[in-house]
Design a protein that fits this description.
Blueprint (H helix, E strand, L loop, with lengths): L6 E6 L7 H14 L4 E5 L7 H5 L8 H5 L5 H4 L1 E2 L6 E4 L11 H11 L5 E5 L6 H9 L2 E6 L3 H16 L5 E8 L1 H5 L3 H11 L2 E7 L2 H9 L8 H13 L10
Parallel strand pairs: 1-5, 1-6, 2-4, 2-5, 6-7, 7-8
Antiparallel strand pairs: 3-4
Helix pairs in contact: 1-11, 5-6, 7-9
The structure holds adenosine-5'-triphosphate and magnesium ion.
Magnesium ion binds next to helix 1.
């Protein structure tokens, strides 16, 4: 296998339930569709969801088993049953201790050579997930919806990152009312960008299809908006020009 050198992206947010897992999986699918070998790692200890979203059944080993030495690396990496090139390590349901930063660093150092992209689905808030992000990620994607609480919490994340000397972050605004997008009402988006304090890399519309995907494991339509936006974000991360509002 050719030596790869995966970039590590961390999907983060201040407030919970803003679409981190949805976007982790959608970005993973978009990157895999463009030919990358992609690994998703779910860091939310005790709260597992990626298996359902990816349609993986009968998980035997998870991140906790791997970090605590109950399995080897190949048995914890589960291939997506539907998307070629996409793999996942799912969240630990029972760990005897917290996920340690040095263990994550060692794990990622070992995995980088086998993937082009590793995406960490981190727990919301300013806790351990954010500390791990600041220590191991090449880039953090901060997810925020356009509501005031979420904007303020997103800004807390940016400040916490800054206090740890981590400045490599971009903003994805999720669940934007499509009327705004159609009318190109950018003022509201500007408020989110200024409020959070991170450079915008993607705008994801509110979309009923998303719920079907994230709660029933139905893969997003490759021609649908969610995948179009995620493909544009992946291309932009690779340095390509793509318009911010994708239609
Ligand atoms: N663009 C969108 N349009 C409509 N619904 C969405 C969109 N993005 C996310 N959702 C819905 O929001 C809910 C929360 O999404 P998700 O589980 O991805 O959030 P999360 O940030 O991972 O949550 P948590 O902090 O609990 O891990 C889900 O029901 C999902 O379907
Ligand atoms: Mg989640």
């Amino acid at each position: 296998m050719p030596a790869r050198k995966a970039k590590v992206l961390a999907v983060t947010s201040g407030k919970g339930g803003v679409g981190k897992s949805t976007l982790t999986v959608s970005l993973g699918i978009a990157a895999a569709a463009s030919g990358s070998r992609v690994l998703l790692i779910e860091l939310d200890a005790g709260l597992r969801g990626l298996d359902i979203m990816l349609g993986i059944s009968g998980v035997v080993y998870d991140l906790g088993d791997l970090l605590e030495g109950r399995c080897n690396i190949s048995s914890a990496i589960i291939p997506s049953p539907n998307v070629s090139g996409l793999y996942a390590i799912v969240a630990p349901v029972s760990m005897t201790g917290p996920i340690l930063i040095q263990d994550m660093r060692l794990l990622l150092d070992g995995l980088r050579a086998y993937f082009d992209l590793i995406i960490l689905d981190t727990p919301a808030g300013l806790g351990r997930g954010l500390r791990i992000t600041c220590e191991v990620a090449d880039l953090a994607l901060i997810i925020a919806t356009p509501d005031p609480v979420c904007i303020r919490d997103g800004n807390q994340v940016v400040r916490e990152m800054l206090s740890r000397g981590f400045t490599s972050h971009r903003l994805i605004i999720n669940r934007v009312n499509r009327k705004f997008i159609r009318r190109q009402v950018v003022q509201d988006l500007d408020e989110v960008i200024d409020g959070v304090g991170s450079q915008l890399i993607g705008v994801v519309p509110e979309d009923g299809e998303v719920t079907l995907f994230s709660s029933h494991g139905r893969l997003p339509d490759p021609k649908g908006e969610l995948q179009r936006v995620c493909r544009a974000i992946i291309a932009r991360l690779g340095g390509e020009y793509q318009p911010l509002i994708v239609r």
